[in-house]
Design goal:
alpha/beta; 64% helix; elongated; binds guanosine-5'-diphosphate
Length: 419
Amino acid sequence: MFKFFKDKLKGVVDSIKKGVEEEVETKEVKINTNKVNTISKKKETTKTNVSTKKKKEKKETKKEVLKKEIKIEKKEEEKKVEENADKEIPEEEKESFFKKIFKKKEDSEKENIEEELTNKKEEKDSKKGVSVFKKITEKITKFDLSEERFEDLFWQLEVTLLENNVAVEVIDKIKKDLKEELTTGKIYRKGVEELINETLKKSIEEVLSVESFDLIKKVKKKKPFVIAFIGINGSGKTTTMAKTASLFKNNNLKVAFAASDTFRAAAIHQLEVHADKLGVKMIKHDYNADPAAVAFDAIEHAKAKGLDVVMIDTAGRLHSNTNLMEELKKIIRVNKPDLKIFVGESITGNDCVEQAKVYDEIVGIDAIILAKADVDEKGGAAISVSYITKKPILYLGTGQNYDDLKKFNKNIMIKNLGL
Ligand code: GDP
Ligand code: GDP
């Protein structure tokens, strides 16, 4: 599930991360170059400064050499001491040896004082603004991307999201969130990848955070509880309805089917096969009968027999067909279902989101089940449909068996995307 999207996302995050890091490098180099430029400008104007600096540099190199020499000598002498430990050292040699040691101590003390003076001078200079090192470090650790560069880098992610059927509105939100993080001085040199991943995760979490409910609990609150299943032909509506009926049965709820898809003779037969398998009572009329009347009869039957749930199968129709939408409106108007579940086909991506939107505008949907998520390598519909309609996804259809209906969990979804 969603593997293609996951792999693509990983690749593009990697690439954005590299882009951002390169940008940090460039900026760092630029700042350093600027620093050199300022120094050389200062060199031109204040020659005395230059000579002092040069002298200081010379002094420093001299100091370095001296330090190294002392270190080597010390090592050699320590070695000698060890070698001669049990030998007796002649008095004068001893003297010269200690003399040497004390002389070096004097030298190093002198050196320390010199060093301290230089440090103090540098500190003074820095206060005057000569040294910009501190400022550079700050700028590099808290770095922000220019808007133009952000647009450049985001483009790859935008293409990936579009390619994986993520709705434009969702892409806009992800873009806004990422821009907020990457262009306002929040980038730390290390952790660019975490910042991008965390932001993406948070955006998608928010996109998926639509108030939901527990279907079983809800159904148990009213008797009979009436649910209409709506959506276009072939989306998996009938199979999903049968899977949901199986779930109800496992929760000790007695179910009746209304075969309100009277448009296709095969549809009635298809539902009947499921009803027989599941041991569910199905109310049917003839082919081409009024679907609203079939649902009405099923509800009456449930009331008379004390059944818990009535599930209305409606004919699939294209949302652009206004006549058929009028007929669906009639089913809803006459039977006032407690819940209208839109069944969408996960793999159709943006089309599925668009259908859900139109169905919601015309008859009002309460929740969504996305069928065929098991064969969807992209996942854009699952990410987008709730954000666009503000209606929760209750379940994902994950196969053709009755128990292939998984409760939708945004955390699992996010995990599936590798975030
Ligand atoms: P309807 O026309 O909307 O009622 O769609 P159907 O219920 O007849 O389903 C159309 C096809 O999709 C059938 O072959 C189903 O077996 C298949 N199908 C339905 N749900 C799923 C699912 O979650 N996963 C897979 N892989 N196939 C499904
Ligand atoms: P068209 O594309 O607008 O010509 O409509 P269709 O070819 O999809 O449907 C032809 C006729 O079948 C329409 O006049 C509808 O009234 C009818 N029809 C379509 N769907 C249904 C349905 O779900 N139930 C019933 N009873 N009739 C339907």
